[in-house]
UniProtKB/TrEMBL annotation, chain A:
<feature type="domain" description="Carrier">
    <location>
        <begin position="1"/>
        <end position="78"/>
    </location>
</feature>
<dbReference type="InterPro" id="IPR009081">
    <property type="entry name" value="PP-bd_ACP"/>
</dbReference>
<protein>
    <submittedName>
        <fullName>Acyl carrier protein</fullName>
    </submittedName>
</protein>
<dbReference type="InterPro" id="IPR036736">
    <property type="entry name" value="ACP-like_sf"/>
</dbReference>
């Protein structure tokens, strides 16, 4: 998953220029790779790619502002049974 | 050269020649239709002038000059300008209230002066080339000379892609210089020297110089604006119309025009089918209230996509938004309506604290004083209510974004979020400049840090966005592209100097923008217009390009032009366009919108100017030709051409 997320960031925000992604641990906003509205594209990608639903109260920099944070966050979502996220109720 | 700028002056063309210089002029006849042709000289034929613009206080200056012994043969403001220069030299520019770009030639001493108005309404460029100097209102006229390099400047591009405009004298072309606003350039056979005759300064400068209380300040503002509009409405020998955006500024200028006019007033507005951008409801409200003859044009996404190349040709620089394009279509409507002068509300936001950026800076300063406060960060949610993709939609990220760069000692504090966001565009350049904003920070007045924070933000806004984008790419160029002159009461020199000395709290009262202006005109324009939340003028963005109407020219640019731009990584730009295509039916991020518009306009600049495919001069019929090359003779008509 780490590589998939990383590749999405590089293709979608750095237009293929891997060299601009200096350190995976860097904050995506601090380094200017995404802006405050660009994060919507990250959310859309994660929801479509991993079939998860991200709730409003999960839209936090600690979940989405770096590659490791995203991987950790999505990993947690995937390992949590769907019934507990409320997704079944929506479906 | 004149053939490249016929759109600016389609009414007449004139040429002056002597053994040292050729002055050309393309005339838009507005004052003194009968005898105002140029170039003309002062009463002793020493100084010759080619001039674009208006000096609105020319009648008062004319009387002053007559009292000093000058004689006049025309009724034009041009003749006043050249006589004023003969009397006072470059100090004369301090006496002018207006908008101009002037070239004045001293035929006795072989010296040239280029001068531009204080705030930079009229453009003026020059190039030194093989011992010659070429100058013109637009760069394309200079590029008519095939010996001039048309190469792009990385420094200029990085400035545009960060500040929204290049910072004069820098331009996006490496050999071309722009006369900075409020400056003259003094040129002799061996020297070129820039000299400021006016500086933008805020704050109370003299000891004991007190700011007015709110009531008197409000009355003074109303009086100054009335006088400024009167000068701009009455000093024209052609009918003057007015733009109506739906906002308070143009409602005020239109209402003042209506008050001054005995005849019906024509007003002009833009409409958009997308309700996110359309302000028709408020435009109709104002036009009905004022009883104007109202004209509106509906601009579609297809219109923007189709007209974009033409608008970029007139802008002559990359742009980051499509918003200039509808302005170009609006001035075409004015011209098709047989009008060539319009009064607009431009400048009010800069002079009187109207922009969201000023509110944003105030909120960020508040956060910076206590960065750990969670309550303070919620104020961010009050910013940008009009924006569909409002950063505050994701509060934690919006707060995080606006809480960055909160070093209160940073003189560029107010503009860091904008500069950081826009700078993302420089990622397409090879080895971009890391601090394009340095040119601004190096130019700050010596006492800048003693000013109020709002005044600091205003100064930077005026010197960057107003000069480099709003008055140029979105202003003069989109008006003059159709031979229409814009007149701006809020940029009257007396209004500017008054606003600069005004108590900043009267402008931004809490987070209420242009407070004093709203109070001053509250009984004069509809309450709903006064009380509506600020909505900046915007147009449909990059999605418009990914439609059949733009496909041909985007494919052509991708295929034949992008790879010729040495300064950029064209592979990355092509990926950007692919992303744009993929997102064409969705809302793009603000940054991607800017990236796409910037790269498309850059490719058009490359095609039209650098590769020279747009440099096709129109035929010119010279109606006034003064030839002093060997014997001194003067004639009208084209017998010497």
């Amino acid at each position: 998953m780490r590589n998939e997320v990383r590749e999405f960031i590089i293709e979608n925000f750095l237009f293929g220029d891997e060299a601009e992604m200096v350190d995976d641990n860097d904050s995506l906003m601090e380094t200017g790779i995404i802006d405050s509205t660009g994060v919507l594209e990250v959310i859309m990608f994660l929801e479509e790619e991993y079939t998860i639903s991200i709730e409003d109260d999960e839209l936090l920099p600690e979940n989405l502002d770096s590659v490791p944070a995203i991987v950790r966050f999505v990993g947690q979502k995937l390992s949590t049974p769907k019934a507990q996220t409320g997704l079944l109720a929506v479906e | 050269m004149l053939g490249m700028i016929q759109h600016r002056g389609p009414d007449a063309s004139g040429v002056y020649r002597d053994d040292q210089i050729t002055l050309g002029h393309a005339r838009l006849s507005v004052i003194d239709l009968e005898t105002g042709d140029q170039p003309i000289s002062c009463s002793r034929a020493r100084y010759w002038i080619s001039y674009n613009g208006e000096v609105y206080n020319y009648l008062e200056l004319r009387d002053e000059l007559i009292a000093l012994g000058h004689t006049f043969h025309t009724k034009s403001d041009t003749e006043v300008v050249v006589n004023a220069f003969s009397e006072w030299g470059p100090r004369c520019f301090q006496k002018f209230n207006g908008q101009w770009a002037a070239a004045i030639w001293d035929s006795w001493e072989n010296r040239l002066v280029l001068s531009r108005d204080p705030i930079g309404i009229c453009p003026l460029f020059y190039v030194q080339n093989n011992g010659n100097l070429l100058f013109a209102s637009e760069v394309k006229a200079i590029f008519a000379n095939a010996n001039v390099s048309r190469a792009l400047s990385k420094t200029g591009l990085c400035q545009v892609f960060t500040l929204w405009g290049s910072y004069a004298p820098q331009t996006v072309y490496s050999e071309v210089h722009e006369v900075p606003p409020g400056h003259c350039v003094l040129i002799s056979s061996d020297t070129i020297r820039k000299e400021a005759y006016w500086r933008l300064e805020f704050g109370v400068s003299e000891p004991g110089d007190r700011r007015l209380e709110f009531g008197p300040a409000m009355e003074e503002l109303e009086a100054q604006l009335t006088r400024a509009t009167q000068l701009r409405f009455t000093r024209a020998d052609v009918p003057v119309g007015a733009y109506l955006s739906g906002g308070i500024d143009s409602a005020i200028t239109a209402s003042l025009v209506k008050q001054l006019s005995c005849a019906p007033v024509d007003t002009y507005s833009l409409r958009f089918s997308d309700p996110e951008f359309d302000e028709g409801e408020y435009q109709s409200l104002v036009s009905s209230d004022l009883g104007t003859t109202h004209h509106e044009i509906a601009v579609s996404a297809e219109d923007i996509a189709k007209t974009f190349p033409e608008a970029v040709f007139h802008a002559e620089r990359p742009i980051l938004r499509t918003a200039p394009v509808p302005m170009y279509l609006l001035s075409r409507e004015v011209r098709n309506n047989d009008k060539k002068v319009v009064v607009t509300g431009e400048g009010a936001d800069e002079m009187l604290g109207g922009y969201d950026l000023f509110r944003e800076a105030k909120v960020r300063r508040f956060i910076a004083r206590n960065p750990t406060s969670k309550v303070r960060k919620h104020l961010v949610e009050k910013l940008y209510p009009w924006m569909e993709r409002n950063p505050a939609n994701i509060p934690a990220f919006g707060q995080s974004f606006f809480s960055k760069n909160i070093d209160l000692a940073d003189p560029g504090f107010s503009h860091r979020p904008r500069w950081d966001t826009s700078r993302a565009i420089t990622q397409f350049l090879h080895d971009p400049d890391t601090s394009p904003e340095k040119c601004v920070l190096d130019d700050l007045p010596h006492n800048f840090e003693t000013w109020h924070p709002l005044e600091m933000a205003q100064w930077i806004e005026i010197k960057t966005l107003l000069n480099g984008y709003l008055l140029s790419a979105q202003g003069d160029r989109m008006l003059m592209g159709n031979g229409v002159e814009g007149r701006f009461p809020f940029l009257d020199i007396n209004v500017i100097e008054f606003a600069c000395k005004m108590n900043p709290a009267y402008k931004l009262w809490g987070l209420r923008e242009k407070h004093i202006l709203k109070r001053a005109f509250s009984g004069r324009i509809p309450t709903r217009v006064i009380s509506r939340p600020k909505q900046p003028y915007r147009a449909p963005e990059a999605n418009v390009f990914f439609s059949p109407s733009a496909q041909d020219w985007i494919d052509y640019l991708s295929r034949d032009v992008l790879d010729t731009i040495e300064l950029i990584d064209s592979r990355k730009v092509k990926k950007l366009f692919e992303k744009g295509e993929k997102f064409s039916s969705k809302k793009m991020s603000n940054t991607d919108n800017m990236r796409i518009v910037a790269m498309l306009s850059l490719a058009l600049i490359q095609e039209q100017f650098v590769l020279g495919r747009g440099l096709r001069p129109k035929p010119v019929k010279v109606t006034r030709h003064i030839d002093r090359r060997s014997e001194r003779r003067e004639t009208k008509g084209d017998e010497y051409v």
